[in-house]
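Let us work through a complete example step by step.
Step 1: write down the sequence.
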Amino acid sequence: MDISSLIMWAGFIMASYSVVGNDVIQTLGTFLSSNENKKWYVLWGFAASILTLTLLYSWVTYQGDVSYMRLIGDPPNSFENPKYPLPEPFDWYYLLPPLVLVFVTRWGIPVSTSFLILTFFKPKGLDSMLIKSVSGYLVAFVAALIIYLLITKIAEEKFPKKSMTDTQRKTWTVLQWFSTGFLWTQWLAQDFANIYVYLPRKLDLVALIPSLLILNALLAYIFYVKGGAIQRIVKSKYNTHDIRSATIIDFIYAIILFYFKELNNVPMSTTWVFIGLLAGREIGIRWMINRKLSTKLFGDILKDLAKVFFGLHISLFLVFFIHWIRGGDVLMMINDIFQKLF
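Step 2: predict the structure and record it as tokens.
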């Protein structure tokens, strides 16, 4: 194995750890919170089986592509002319984005892996990715706000006060595992691109099998440590440990991701959608319960939003830094990006 291949696989492993550790909690955080009484390996087995089936479905359907066409693009793009071409050769600096993600994940900062990794491979794709991600935040925020203004009095306010019978708990458990499975597939279809951007666009079995084993092993670790630092964001929100509340969150999130997945093949930040969903939910619930909104609530919302913007700034810094190393004109690059956005 040559140096370029070593860098490629090292990048894949670090990206896998970073994406699983940072982004997975958006999808499985409420699942973990509301199932803390179950063994971690039972929860992992459920999530790992869905991950494996979702990956294999894309690999079979798209003839070797596991990114649901987010890396290769729509026709007439192909494996020979993908939207996100594989660097040849892989230089050392391609390890910077996942390496940075490893550290910010340890600090519990929910940055966008889509911006941090995919923008690094294709800076020109930033404008469309940013527009779609901001749209995702706004759609999730408004949808959650409206839904929780409507259901808080009949559901969320009563959940902490009303215990469930055994029959009700079994029903809600089935509903939550179904909604989590649906959400997990939609998230994976979006975020496989952030991980597999480091591997060839058309995978053979020799690359597919070890990559799948690596992903599932890292997923097992995340379940074993109960989500890690990022899980604190989920637990800080109102009643997310209740299986009924968790089910509603997962279902809303899944529907929004499904809509954007079907909209087009432009990659987007699922982190922004998740943060928008939690923000709209918190405002809706707090208003209906207390009829007022505290400065602390808005401070927490702005803090979460600042964290995802922090990730965007890191992404841009890395892109400009490498462009400068290569001898490019950074100011011209910045001007091009701003012209596309505004």
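Step 3: interpret the result. The CA atoms of residues 183 and 254 lie 4 Å apart.
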